[in-house]
Amino acid sequence: MTDEIYHRVAKVLDALPNGFPSTSDGLEIKLLKKVFTPDEGELFCDLKPGLETVEQIAERTGRALDGLEAKLTSMAKRGELLGINFGGTKLFAILPWVVGVYEYQIARLDREFCELTEEYMKYLAPQLLAPQPHVMQTLPIQRTLPIQTEILATQQALPYQQVSAIIENGRNFRVNECICKKERGILAAPCKKPHEVCLAIGPVEGAEFILDWGREISKQQAYEVLRKAEEAGLVHLTSNVESAHTFICNCCGCCCGVLRPMNELNISNVVNSHYYVEIDEDKCNGCGVCIDERCQVRAIEETDIKYRSVKERCIGCGLCVTACPTDAIKLVHKPQQEIIRPPIDMKAWNDARARQRSAG
User: Fold this and answer.
1) pLDDT tens, 104-140?
2) Among 83-92, 169-178, 262-271, 337-346, whose mean pLDDT is lowest?
3) CATH class of the domain comprising 275-337
4) Cα–Cα distance measured from residue 293 to residue 273, given in angstroms and rounded to the nearest whole number
5) What are the CA-CA distances from residue 26 to residues 61, 95, 119, 123, 219 (Å)?
6) What span, in angstroms and rounded, lies between the C-alpha atoms of 181 and 97?
């Protein structure tokens, strides 16, 4: 009976646009047992993707109202579901496994959890990263963006492409250790780059996430996190939508669940990027900083003379641009026909992803 509950949770998660594929050896069930108790699993299965009040959940499911808010709040605090306190009214909904439940389990990570996750990502990553629209989009280092001129008006960076616009639209901020880096450390593959670089952003005035995750910081401190990430050569990634962004990840190619597959599985096109870099060989002095220290996805290669960018792999992060001592590298806006505009918000993203999975 207990395993039946976890199979139900897995089925609910797999019905979401992000997916949660089954495996022959039940890896997904073992992972769920690390997070949910059977009672929590049953309650999770009673929820919907759309936000509801406690009263609405009780009326729809037939659950007793007494004690329900406390149970939902407890699960939300542990990142097992989405909880938002909007001016004193609590709203709840289910979360996908990735990006969602898994990222909020950083306090529960142990070696078994990490080993299961590593093995399960072999099944989840192809399903998560291949379909359109992309899960994530790149936010270039802002000072590398092309300067707008009257002639290049169509190349102006739109707000959702500017890290500062996302921060300025945020209402509250939290920072935590990167779960990908923590996982790799537990598995004896520690990352030397900064770890406390994951930003959560409250996008709506008066709304706070019900979540025991990280520590609260100011807007200025959020900018400082981004500055340190840029100095360390970490890529800014966020949700692939135009509005209401709720996080900025700062990622490396050795740990990140999105960027690692580009290096380890030699695949590309896993994030939505609006720019790429070009290297001027006449200006390049062959120092190798771009390829050795900055590029996280092997998008720069050595030639017989110096270096060149590999456009099909470049994710347009701008890290190499800021480190080039001779200004030989520039960020270039993709041609209009190559731009994939993100969905307007997460509802539109979910709808588009669901259609794509159905068609596939």
Assistant:
1) 999 999 999 999 999 999 999 888 887 689 999 999 9
2) 262-271
3) alpha beta
4) 21
5) 29, 21, 11, 12, 43
6) 18
pLDDT value of position 183 = 96
Delimit the CATH 1.10.10.10 region(s) of the chain. Answer: 2-125
Q: What is the pTM of this model?
A: 0.91
Place of tokens 């097992």: 80
pLDDT at 153: 43
Neighbours of 305 (CB within 10 A): 9
Does 1.10.10.10 match the CATH number of domain 2-125? yes
Distance CA 25, CA 241 (A): 35
Q: What is the pLDDT of residue 354?
A: 86
Instruction: Give the list of residues 6+ apart from residue 320 with CB closer than 8 angstroms, or none.
Output: 277, 289, 290, 294, 295, 300, 329
Q: CA triplet 135, 41, 56: central angle to 5 degrees?
A: 85
The number of helices, as runs of H, and strands, as runs of E, in the chain is 13, 14
Domain with CATH 3.30.70.20 in the chain: 275-337
- Average pLDDT of the chain is 90
The candidate with the shortest Cα–Cα distance to 137, out of 265, 223, 283, 243, is: 243
pLDDT band, very low/low/confident/very high, at 58 (cuts 50, 70, 90): very high
Which of 10, 11, 7, 96 lies closest to 49, judged by CA? 96
> Is 168 exposed, middle or buried (CB count within 10 Å of its CB: 0-12, 13-18, 19+)?
exposed
- How far is Cα 246 from Cα 170, in angstroms, rounded to an integer? 8
| Prior bond of 241 cis (ω within 30°) | no
